[in-house]
Amino acid sequence: MKKTAGEPGTPEPRLYRVVAERVQQLIQEERIAPGARLPAERELSAKLCVSRASLREALIALELGGVVEVRGGSGVYVCEQPLPAEVPETGPGPFEVLAARRLIESEIAAIAAKVATGAQVDAILRAVEEMERHHEDRASNEQADRNFHLAIARATGNTAFVGVIEYLWSNRGTLWHKLKEHYQTEELRLETLPDHRKILEAIAARDPAGARHAMRAHLERVTRTFSRG
């Protein structure tokens, strides 16, 4: 027998899918025609009583489902095609992942500051230098960024932490990459370079509180930029 939401053992639907369905209902109820522009984000989030972060996740999920088109600097438009029956499932939402990373990686950085060996600090330094060297090459820069966060996890000496970071990075998925495509700015990319240096310096200085604060500040910056633009 098929389980429904709310029954024991049935996972709750992801928030972005719930919000996406509400956006689809609004399009139908207000008869927003194909090719027409949706209300501005601020107005739409107020009308639906959701945060702009949740709304952005929903709009990107709808874009992946062919319901809307997000046009940078212009707005969000209904696609010239019938609405699909269901929003695609794309894994954890980007802001779910960022919330987990703020909590977990801040503590991982603090632990690394206590126990990292000189060789492990050098590995973190190499990743930072790779990010700086490949700033203009986005694919190489992102790989170096991943290596940076994994090097910090390895510096704790706890393989479970390494597995957690691998999981968080692997579950960013298509929703995350679309969010970056639409909302990551060159300003954010430039600001995160010194963020990584501050994290490294706190770990190298054996300053757990400083490492925790620097990592949290870095991930909060990313969250703010992606949720407010």
From TrEMBL:
Keyword tags: DNA-binding, Transcription, Transcription regulation
PROSITE patterns: HTH_GNTR (PS50949)
Matching InterPro entries: GntR_C, TF_FadR/GntR_C, Tscrpt_reg_HTH_GntR, WH-like_DNA-bd_sf, WH_DNA-bd_sf
SMART domains the record matches: FCD, HTH_GNTR
GO-annotated molecular function: DNA binding; DNA-binding transcription factor activity
Keyword Magnesium: no
Span of domain HTH gntR-type: 13-81
Key word DNA-binding present: yes
One Pfam family, short name: GntR
PANTHER family on file: TRANSCRIPTIONAL REGULATOR, GNTR FAMILY, UXU OPERON TRANSCRIPTIONAL REGULATOR
Protein name, per record: FCD domain-containing protein
Species of origin: Pseudoduganella buxea
